[in-house]
Amino acid sequence: MTTAAQLAEYLDDLLRVREIPDYSHALNGLQLTNQRSITRIAAAVDFSSQTILGATKAGANLLLVHHGMFWGGLQPLRGPAYDRLRTLMEHDIAVYAAHLPLDCHPTYGNNVLLANTLGLTPSGDFAKYKTIAIGVRGKSDLDTGIVIERARTFARSHGGEIRHTPIAPSQKTRLWAICTGSGASSDTLQEASELGIDTLIVGEGPHHTAIEAAERGIMIIYAGHYATETLGVCALSAHLETQFGIPWTFIGAPTGL
Predict the structure, then answer these.
(1) How far apart are CA 112 and CA 108, in angstroms?
(2) Order of all β-strands in the sheet with 41-46
(3) Rounded CA separation 189/38 (Å)
(4) How far apart are CA 87 and CA 81, in angstroms?
């Protein structure tokens, strides 16, 4: 029988939670404990009323998420915030969150898994943040249209749709980089430009990044914040099933973004 604390200790070490810097509201690790041993894991991208309900319906008593309980910052425990906590307590559901430690993991991370899904082989790091690199990059010799179609198929499988900046006929993807989630920014575009990247694949980004990318000669594929961050929690949950014999369920809750 495995407790939430035991799983958290294992995950903290596996993901190097204590070493990886992150945003202040991430609070990576075990965010809410419970009383019973863990019998089923519910994996989800976001902590929300919808994913909590999915966990209860699945009979799970650990909710493993990418964006945790405190992602929106401090708020009083009333209204929806109170209802979420009450449901968790009533069903004895623990919550574990892993943000950047999961994004950048070399095996179970969102970035390396998205590269694999798109048929791309990483050979370097990308998207520097403080002491770490969040994303990955590599070389290929593919028609950019093929990369776009692969990304579109992937996004649609998770209830999303891609957007991309214009491409020229017969355009090639030779140097690519990936940063899942909100990966398009002036910083990542500057880094991509310095590395000679021609194709940048992200979850989402501000409007100005499309303009800046064109001026830097970079094509961006916006494959969806939600879709690009479904991979890590699923891979991590599958790994826990192998290691601890605890079954898991993915709770889909597409945001359309």
Answers:
(1) 7
(2) 29-32, 94-97, 62-67, 41-46, 248-250
(3) 42
(4) 10
Q: What is the value of pTM for the model shown?
A: 0.96
Tell me the domains of the chain and their CATH numbers.
4-102 (3.40.1390.30), 104-228 (3.40.1390.30)
Q: What's at 151, amino acid-wise? A: A
CB neighbours of residue 141 within 10 Å: 7
List phi, psi (to 5°) of 107: -115, -45
The whole-angstrom separation of Cα 122 and Cα 119 is 10
Q: CA 114, CA 61: separation in Å to the nearest integer?
A: 28
Number of alpha carbons in the 13 Å side-chain half-sphere of residue 225: 15
Give which of 126, 138, 4, 15 is closest to 61, Cα–Cα. Answer: 4
Burial class (CB in 10 A: 0-12, 13-18, 19+), 213: buried
| Cα–Cα distance, 137 to 145 (Å, whole number) | 18
Q: Is the dihedral of CA 209, 214, 217, 219 positive or negative?
A: positive
- Per the structure block, which two tokens stand in for 80? 């929806």
Q: Which three-class secondary structure state does DSSP give residue 2?
A: coil
Calculate ∠ Cα 70-76-77, nearest 5°. 85
Which residue type does 60 have?
A
d(CA 219, CA 222): 10
Q: What is the mean pLDDT of each run of 10 residues along the chain (257 residues)?
A: 97 98 96 98 98 98 98 93 97 98 98 98 98 98 97 96 94 98 97 98 97 97 98 98 98 95
